């Protein structure tokens, strides 16, 4: 396949989650998890599939430096830095806000540093609106003789979304009768690729509050990769797990994280996968997902983000129970 590179071993495994299924009132065989958190690069996660295509595109264009944008706890930025390290390319990450106080950077930033990324703190801006600042960084890099290549927010170009057309096809081979594939919706490329591969009816996206028009974004990307019209209204998207906003800890999300962890030993993060799981729980409650329908939870990674989320860290540590002798 022209342009594509390999950054991990495939396929990722699928596993049943019988104890979580029972906790939600489903049959033991109803609920499965696809482990796109288990990959051979940089701690893994859904961004690896997209980077196989977007970094492939960068190499074809002769780039020697990857530039991308995101929130400071961006898993996409971390994995771009890891891909850069693996391929011997430079990486520059453009983040909103300002440099964290000495000693206060956590989570993904720890790994960004280890992977050798350089960082530009762009001040006041939404993560999704950093493209202008990133273009400026590219201009500057060219002036210095580098050959930069800009990968968009979340790696969600039509090129990046092809990684999840493949992910969806892989899943269809593993679990052909899946009626619901539940996935966190951030920048949209993951859901878009899945919709292109599996159809609008089977994919349930749980909006995480990272973008303002999730349905329009996913429909555009899905249409571009599937080469057919995809209507925003035809998409299944839940918007009930954003809570007070992308960076906040939504109470049902923490509850869903605890349930998945306590029943299956599966760790989720408060920004993406915890929201997706809370959306799955809500869908079971309101009848969107019913007993006897095979449901796949796509684990998209993101664990470092848990350690970069002060409130989730505090609440989780506070839940440690003392052992008391009887
Ligand atoms: C980025 C991300 C998502 C969302 O994927 P998009 O393609 O941006 O919609 C989900 N989970 C995790 C852990 C992520 O890092």
Descriptive account of the structure:
The chain is an alpha/beta fold and 326 residues long. The protein has two domains: 14-44 and 158-318, Rossmann fold, CATH 3.40.50.1100; 47-155, Rossmann fold (3-Layer(aba) Sandwich). Helix content is 41%, strand content 14%. Strands 1-2-10-7-8-9 form a six-stranded mixed β-sheet, with helices on both faces. Strands 5-4-3-6 form a four-stranded parallel β-sheet, sandwiched between helices. Strand 4, helix 4 and strand 5 form a beta-alpha-beta unit. Helix 2 packs across helix 3 (75-87) and helix 9 crosses helix 10 (273-286). The longest helix has 17 residues, at 158-174. The radius of gyration is 19 Å and the shape is globular. It starts with 13 loop residues before the first strand and ends in an 8-residue tail after the last helix. It binds pyridoxal-5'-phosphate. Pyridoxal-5'-phosphate binds at residues 45-47, 75-76, 154, 156, 184-191, 272-273, 300-302.
CATH structural architecture of the largest domain: 3-Layer(aba) Sandwich
Lateral strand order in the biggest sheet: 1-2-10-7-8-9
Q: Roughly what is the average pLDDT, rounded to an integer?
A: 97
Q: What is the CATH class name of the largest domain?
A: Alpha Beta
Q: How many domains make up the 3D coordinates?
A: 2
> What is the rounded distance between the termini?
64 Å
Give the overall silhouette: globular
Give the biggest beta sheet.
6 strands, mixed
And the CATH topology of the largest domain?
Answer: Rossmann fold
In terms of structural class, how would the helical and strand content be classed? alpha/beta
Helix run count:
12
Protein name: D-cysteine desulfhydrase
Domain Tryptophan synthase beta chain-like PALP: 5-301
Family: Belongs to the ACC deaminase/D-cysteine desulfhydrase family.
Active site: 74 (nucleophile)
């Amino acid at each position: 396949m022209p342009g594509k590179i390999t950054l991990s071993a495939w396929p990722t495994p699928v596993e049943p989650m019988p104890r979580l299924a029972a906790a939600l009132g489903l049959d033991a065989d109803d609920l499965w998890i696809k482990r796109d958190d288990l990959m051979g690069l940089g701690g893994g996660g859904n961004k690896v599939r997209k980077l196989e295509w977007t970094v492939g595109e960068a190499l074809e264009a002769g780039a020697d430096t990857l530039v991308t944008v995101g929130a400071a706890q961006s898993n996409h930025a971390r994995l771009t830095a890891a891909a850069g390290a693996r391929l011997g390319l430079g990486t520059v990450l453009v983040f909103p806000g300002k440099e964290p106080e000495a000693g206060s950077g956590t989570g993904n930033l720890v790994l960004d540093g280890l992977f050798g990324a350089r960082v530009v703190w762009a001040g006041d801006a939404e993560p999704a609106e950093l493209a202008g600042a990133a273009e400026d960084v590219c201009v500057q890099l060219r002036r210095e003789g580098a050959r930069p290549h800009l990968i968009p927010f979340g790696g969600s170009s039509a090129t990046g979304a092809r990684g999840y057309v493949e992910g969806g096809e892989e899943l269809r081979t593993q679990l052909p009768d899946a009626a619901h594939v539940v996935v966190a919706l951030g920048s949209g490329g993951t859901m878009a690729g899945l919709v292109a591969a599996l159809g609008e009816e089977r994919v349930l996206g749980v909006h995480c509050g990272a973008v303002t028009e999730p349905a329009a974004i996913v429909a555009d990307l899905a249409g571009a990769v599937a080469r057919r019209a995809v209507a925003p209204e035809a998409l299944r998207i839940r918007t009930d797990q954003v809570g007070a906003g992308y960076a906040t800890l939504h109470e049902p999300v923490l509850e869903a994280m605890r349930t998945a962890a306590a029943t299956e030993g599966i760790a989720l993060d408060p920004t993406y996968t915890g929201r997706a799981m809370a959306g799955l729980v809500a869908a079971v409650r309101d009848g969107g997902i019913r007993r006897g329908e095979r449901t796949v939870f796509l684990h998209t990674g993101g664990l470092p983000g848990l350690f970069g989320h002060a409130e989730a860290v505090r609440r989780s540590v506070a839940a440690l129970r003392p052992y008391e002798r009887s």
